[in-house]
Design goal:
Elements (H helix, E strand, L loop, with lengths): L5 H17 L5 H24 L4 H32 L15 H4 L7 H24 L17 H20 L8 H13 L5 H20 L17 H10 L2 H7 L6 H27 L6 H38 L7
Helix pairs in contact: 1-2, 1-11, 2-5, 2-7, 2-9, 3-5, 3-11, 3-12, 6-7, 8-10, 11-12
Length: 340
Amino acid sequence: MMSLGPGQFRVLLALAVVLSHLSNYEVGRPAVFAFFTLSGFWVMRMYDEKYRGAGGAPIFYISRLLRIWLPFAVAYLGFLTIKSAGFGEGGAGALVSLPILGIATSHVDVLGVSWSLDIELQFYLLVPAIWLLLERHGGDVARGAGGRRAVPVLWPMLAAIALAVPGWWLILRHDVTTVLAFLPSFAAGILLWRSDWRPGWRTAMLSVAVFLGIGGLVWLQPDWRGLMLKDVETTLHEDLFGIAWMLALVPFIAYNVHRPSSRLDQHLGNYSYALYITHWPVIWLSRRLIAGDGAGLDRRVLTVAAILAVSVAFYVIVDRNCERLRQWLIRSRRPLRQAA
């Protein structure tokens, strides 16, 4: 954990989602919430350094949409074609989710993880307004001693928690899922960017220890264990627990985002998206092509090998070419403003 780069950490989170889909352990959702926190940090920083100012928001929207949507569309249409042609499942009705927005509510999710991409895109829509509010009412963020920013006021987190209340009311009462319910996760990342907090290694490791300790404590309590297992009824919604549990990891995230990142580490960070959106189709296919009660372990081994092969091939052939296309389209619009 000490030398874990930002890209390696993102791959580790994606692997937690893969593990969750290969087992009955609910470890994928906290990993997704950690992705939301990372998004709050990196996307707000990106907007501030590249897209802010008059006319910046439209280019930001186009850039973020293309980064998420282009690889998603290839994976989505490819797997939908396989399901329809090879297994008679899916069909044209699933095309309603191709724009991504609305998947978290409709639950028409061919790739199995697209609900989180819907939440991501909803957050991107809010980014310019959040940035403007922070610039006007974000408190004192002037550089202090040692070049660090002063810690801003905590109103963004308080506002996120307040907005999460109606967000969860919509989920629990009307089965309508919006970014509001998950704003605390994004707000944690925004505060990390805003404050430029750089905790030391000991603080980061203590954060990991607390995170693992909470998980162990919950697992040891029979009445709480259902929060870490799938398809088990619990009095507390597992996502509410997952968000709160993930917040214990925020100091480590603050430490990790400031770690040096080599070219290989950057590739790993980008690869995590390919792994994230391609692993569930491979799992789905393996469950239908490798049948039998005695095939459990063999199927898992073959499935993991297939996931790695498919995701690496998708990253090299599809994701990188989609990224080149995105960069070309953005450059053709206008040069991005440089950071001050």
